Amino acid sequence: MISVEEGKKVFLVGLDLGQAQDYTALIILEQYGAVPAHYHLRYIKRFPLKTPYPEIMDYVVRLLKSKELAEGRIVLIVD
After folding, report:
1. Residue 17 carries which DSSP code?
2. Nearest Cα residue to 45 out of 55, 31, 32
């Protein structure tokens, strides 16, 4: 759970980088409240197999700079 400032959105961005035979997956959760926290799934994407890492990173950077996410606190979690 991430601490939430009053009136500020918190987005948890999860990125699981796949290998040649595994898909890369990206999700965005929006956290509501502090204790107990509630989460809403806001975005999910599975990249095609063998998508080059630089292409994935370009996509993630563009997404993180989007207007919708710029209004909140972003926590990026990479596996």
Report:
1. -
2. 55
64, containing H or E segment: helix 53-64
- What pLDDT sits at residue 71? 84
**Could you read off the pLDDT of 22-76 as tens digits, one per residue?**
999 999 999 987 778 889 999 999 999 999 999 999 999 999 999 989 888 999 9
CA distance 53 to 23: 12
Token reading at 45: 């994407």
Q: How is residue 76 written in tokens?
A: 């990026």
| Residue 12 contacts residue 29 (beta carbons within 8 Å) | yes
